[in-house]
Amino acid sequence: MGVIVTIEIVTSVNGGFSVTAIETPATSTPDRGADEVSERLLASAARLSRNAMTEIDWSQPMDPDQYGCSPEWSTLYGTDFWDELTDAQRVALTRHEFASIMTVGIWFEMILQELVFRDQYLGAYHRPEFQFALTEVADECRHSIMFAKASEKMVGTSYRPGPAIGRLGRVFAYTARGAVAYAGILVAEEVLDVFQRGCMRDDRVLPFIRTINEIHVLEESRHMKYAREQVRASVADMSPRKRAFCALYTSLGAREIVANLVQPQAYADAGLDAERALAERRTNKHFHAMVRSNCTHLMEFLDEVGLLTPAARQNYRRVHMI
Asked: Which residue segment(s) compose the domain that 219 sits in?
């Protein structure tokens, strides 16, 4: 059985922070109902929520030698192309890559907000489950503003999926319900979490980006806990046929999210040959291994709830999540 490490970061008034790591089994016993989980998450949100707009001094200049993400998390790290780049080109590359990850993250966070609003539209407004659902939406709005501000400061531009993927995102937002909606939320949040956990303690990365990563990892840990509980509840009495459909639909969404995180334009904006960069990325075994090893707990959970069918596995394998 695997282990999930939840990290709580508490910032003090003097700017320092303390870190508490809590280990729990990756396939732990389901919590007793959404309201019980929601009450705990509401209390956590009240104690630990942070605001990047006031916590970060956005006027501070950027060190030209610091990266946008850990070099090892660049999609080109470990390739011949990476070896040919100067230090300045590597810095520029990681900044544009991470700006793409953050702003494409805004795209799917807006989809997630729509899914939550639709699910809670005629909910029981007095219940903790409803109250945390709206807390999550408020968090996601702050995160999107945070990512937008960071992209503006770091590279002065933003990235979106192409028109076809944009239309597919609208279809998913309109059609996803129940287990598909919350499994989609979980997968999208876990994917972004993977990248940010890998970079939030690296002194080579821009300080304001490290702070953004800390904030997002902390607050998304609550969202992922909530999504897991919703998925468990949704699949509890589901027929095998419907469960197989949910597994496939969720994996298709995950495949498109991962495939579109770093847009081709990000390579061009970093001054690289975008076609060569894409070709190198497709065969970059180092990057594939990084993604795969950090998605282990997500795959264990999907397997636990019956959403890792053979057809779903094929889609996750195509983007190296398994």
From this structure: 3-318
